[in-house]
Amino acid sequence: MEKTDLDSLKAQTTKNIFFLTLRNFGIQGVSTLGFFLLTLLLGTADVGLFAIVSESIGILGYFSDIGLASALIQQKNEPDKTSLRTTFTIQQILVFLCLLAVAIFYPQLSQSKGYGDREMWIMIALCFSFLAGSLKTIPSVLLERKLNFKLISAVDIIENVLFYTIAVIFAWMGFGVYAYAIATFIKSLAGLIIMYTLSPWPVGFAYDKKVAKKLFSFGIPFQLNSFISVAKDRFSNLFVAGILGRESFGILAWAQKGPRIPLSFMDAIMRVTFPTFSRLQSDHDFIKKSLEKSAFFIAVVVFPSLLGISLIAPDFIALIPKYSKWTPAVIPLYFYAASYAIASVTTPITNAFNATGRIKVTTKLMIMWTVLTWIFFPFLSLKYGYMGTAIASLIVGLSSFIVWYLAYKYFKANIFKSILHPIIASLIIFVSVLPINLLSLEVLPRLVVKIVVAVFVYGLYFLLFKKEDLLWFYRQLPKSRK
Questions:
Q1: Which of 196, 224, 227, 203 is nearest to 89 (CA)?
Q2: pLDDT at 371 over 80
Q3: Which of 8, 16, 76, 403 has its CA 20 to 30 A from that of 387?
């Protein structure tokens, strides 16, 4: 790749990371507010029901793609019409088979479990969302290959705002858990229409054996990791839900919501760097520096955010009397926050393995995590309930340190050194804020004092010890707006 093209791609990558980060935090702000209102209006069992059905439909996403979208993104040459239509045809066949399987097996499951109209309508709504999502794959791939994340983000933002606005309105009107189904229908249909308006393509069916073979050669090994991930996360979650029941699973859904908010920054980096790393697979120095810088800035944002959410969660619940039903979720939240802190730095590394063709490395790691998940999650969930599930999440997360070692082995990226200052600064926040609980303050003043002290301490630390990195970050902001 020519130096001018390389510089342009690097600049575009930085720009998209900043843009997607701001977009993700905006979406998280909307979804967090919407989730808060829904969990205020609905019971723990209603929240648990939607989470369980969402996990079930999420499994279908694996079988509907088999890595074809990733194969299109990863290939160096621009896909032609035949490639797009072949991918579309194969995917829609798989989607049809998945929906057919749901139609055959759901009535039997519904009868054995005693499900009613609530479960059925949520299932139908999520199946429609699944179909709409598959139809958006090709337009999304075309935008993602061009690193045009602004248009992709526009659709995501509209869908998110629509979903939570409609869900909250209907929940407030007394529709209960049906509010989820109504919001899912409208959100999915609107997103599909907008995506095809923004990124039209010559829709059609085709099958080219040579193209299909090329897609499968990357897609199937890539999707093998996705299958292992599905077994690790979604299948295990459904198994745990069967052990715990809707009430306890709803508590876990609440406990995970807050800690997931800061991961928006990681998601932005992940989404942009995969196509970028794929184009620059031979530029090891660029990948090394990108991983170290990504790890540092992820940690700068995510670590204190997770710690802050953990420190103010009890005050937040105490501030709203009707919210006391979520008090049991506070301790599990601590475990999830610690687990997500490790994952936030680890996931971009596995993303780099995939983008640079080291699929087998990721596969071995996924197998390790899957085995650990199926050992600890069922055992601890049976023994200690939802608290055991949260503990198991952290135990499995701790095994991710091996990925940091592999980052150094393959890319010479020193991840621990990159995140050392964010770790130290976060520990100083903890030591500074924790004693505030001993003061005789009302809930709201205590909450405000904690936030002010945490922000001041963290900002002062980086001004003293990592000022140059903050200045670099500041200098990128004008570039991100160009």
A1: 203
A2: yes
A3: 403
Token readout for 17 is 């990371």
Distances (CA, A) of 12 to 5, 40, 143, 300: 10, 41, 14, 22
The more confident residue out of 306 and 261 is 306
- CA neighbor of 85 nearest in space, from 217, 199, 207: 207
pLDDT > 90? residue 428:
yes
The residue ranges of every structural domain in the chain are 3-480
Residues 299 and 302: their CA atoms lie apart, in Å, by 5
273 in Cβ contact with 248 (< 8 Å): no
* Total residue length of the chain: 482
Q: What is the DSSP string of 291-319?
A: HHHHHHHHHHHHHHHHHHHHHHHHHHHHH
Interior/surface letters 379-415, b for 16+ CB within 10 angstroms, e for the rest: ebbeeebbbbbbbbbbbbbebbeebbebbbebbebbb
For residue 201, the tally of other CB atoms under 10 A from its CB is 14
Phi, psi of 7 (to 5 degrees): -65, -40
Q: Are 368 and 399 in contact (CB under 8 A)?
A: yes
Q: Output DSSP code: residue 280.
A: T
Query: What are the tokens at 81?
Result: 């019409």
38 in Cβ contact with 47 (< 8 Å): yes
Distances (CA, A) of 258 to 33, 135, 192, 337: 11, 31, 28, 8
**The model's pTM:** 0.75
3-state secondary structure (DSSP) of residue 69: helix
The pLDDT-based confidence of 208 (bands split at 50, 70, 90) is confident
Q: What is the pLDDT of residue 392?
A: 95
> What band does 481 get if pLDDT is binned at 50, 70 and 90?
very low
8 A C-beta contact, residue 38 and residue 61 = no
* pLDDT of 332 above 90: yes
Tell me the mean pLDDT in the region 31-38: 82
Question: Is the pLDDT higher at 260 or at 290?
Answer: 260
77: number of Cβ within 10 Å: 6
Judge whether residue 450 has pLDDT over 90.
yes
| Higher-pLDDT residue of 33, 420 | 420
pLDDT of 16: 59
Residue type at position 36: F
Distance in angstroms (rounded) separating the CA atoms of residues 187 and 198:
16
Q: What is the DSSP annotation of 123-188?
A: HHHHHHHHHHHHHTHHHHHHHHHTT-HHHHHHHHHHHHHHHHHHHHHHHHTT-TTHHHHHHHHHHH
